[in-house]
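Standup notes
- DV: blocked on the single-chain target, sequence here:
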Amino acid sequence: MIDVLLAALAGLLFGSFLNVCIYRLPRDLSVVKPRSFCPECDHGIAWYDNIPLLSYAILGGHCRHCRARISWRYPLVEFLTALCFAAAVWIQPLHQIDAMAVKYGVFCAISITLIFADLEERILPDEFTLGGVFVGIVFAWFVPVTNMSLVRFFVNIEDKRVVSVIESAAAAAISSLALWLVGFLYQKLRHREGLGLGDVKMVAMIGSFLGLQFVLLTLIVGSLLGAVVGLGYILFTRKDAATYELPFGSFLGIGAIAVAFWGEVLMTWYGNLG
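- DV (later): unblocked, structure below
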């Protein structure tokens, strides 16, 4: 249990940094300097006003200096990151912080960043999409990709780590190419862009971490979420469905985290339906 609590604490701290990335990367700002500041009055934020969750509660969700409202996104990202880090450890048989838990924690952190960056700015930073592809392939060497659907093509390779890396890289390439092709055909048929390259890169990142089966499952879950929630939002706010830009990356990220933790359950349920 202590490992789960430590993971949650690490998630809170990491989530605070993710908030910096979510705000600064879409604006091409450095995530290293200057130190945290209020986006309304540009006043530097003291360390005691930058404690995850606690400072937001103490300040009542307002800047200490200009009293501007602090976005709800800050405590939400910190809480979700802590929750995912704790869950990544909790699902391990002995509730220990091992390589698999670290992989799932990093994957969730990347996904959370992309969810909120796309939701707020409609931008999916390359640092987390393309950078995530590289990280996912590296992790594949140390932590085998689960549900490897391409393994039967590499029966002559005895080193499972090599097979895992091939699965990771192939899943990233195949899934992103498939999504790009869908977007290309949509543009040709409808004469307007339906998918951005950021979504394609994000799918490659998901594939590098989860493998081909799970990234395809993520596309299904993310598309269903986007269709249901997106349509509901458009109807509720009376926006123009022809011009509204749906944050598909946000739905992909939610689907990816769900599949990372419950993919086996979803696959079993789907198999039973068949």
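- Follow-up: Helices lie at 2-24, 54-58, 73-90, 99-121, 126-142, 160-190, 197-237, 248-273.
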